[in-house]
Specification:
The protein is α/β, with parallel strands linked by helices. Helices cover about 50% and strands about 15% of the residues. The chain has an 8-stranded parallel barrel with strand order 1-2-3-4-5-6-7-8, surrounded by 6 helices. Helix 9 links the parallel strand 7 and strand 8. The chain starts with a helix and ends with a helix.
Amino acid sequence: MTDDIHIANDHDKLSCMHITLAPMEGVVDHLMRDMLTHIGGYDLCVTEFVRVVEAKLPPRVFYRICPELADGGLTPNGVPVKVQLLGQHPQWMAENALTAVELGSHGVDINFGCPAKTVNKSQGGAVLLQYPEKLHAIVKAVRNAVPSQHAVTAKIRLGFNDTSLALENADAIYQAGASSLAIHARTKSDGYRPPAYWPWIAKIKEKIPNLPLVANGEIWSAADAVLCQTQSQCDNIMLGRGALALPNLAQSIKYDVPAMPWEACLELMVKYSGYEMYGKKGRYYPNRIKQWFNYLKRQYPEAETMFMDIRQLKHADDIVKVLSK
């Protein structure tokens, strides 16, 4: 009986959980956001980053990354979308943040977590985790520029090479006025190697109790979500790679539904193929679908076999023929 009560309590907690679909550069574009939010379980999406250098970007840049801006900043299924910015110059980050919300973004997110070498070399993303004062200056400038009714959020890792500045970085972002903070519970040096250090999020919460936190990293199942909640002491989560490995992961977490069967997953990929092939990004389709298969292989043994059938194919029509068999 006691176990039944614990299970029921876990399900109650998960059904109330706020789940964000993470920004994944080159993977989670507006087409993927449309598909995954259609399945259900998501409360918010964050876009791939808009790169800010030393310029105020024209609206077309924001519409390219976030076509949903033309529809009130919502996916076709009504899930709000927030534009993410990446850059190092407070003034230009602030000006572009204002543009984003004026165009219809549901707040603005700031990327302090991207581990890509090309991004870090140009002083963007996770490299800024070495400089708490820069984090503070950027967030404060954006918060001052964006009207108070719009959320200004940030995403970080636990640090660059180590966790020595984790608490100081989070506090700098809080003191600058951030509405909430998503934490990928690994350092830049950790990359994506498991595990994710969820207890570190609890340390940050203890130190800065008034800053709402969102836990991210290594959540592949509903059981992982429960464990993440317990270890991080954080109610809300962000799903990235897990959402691609199991397309109904958010729904599974919130509503205790079984994993999507492989046949339904194939139908989803055929639908996605139609989106991609006839859209503006059609030339990227072969690489994108193969990238998706790399995530699906974690959940579906059938994906491994089918990936071997498509990995040498370079034309979209040939790939779709294999998916449609």
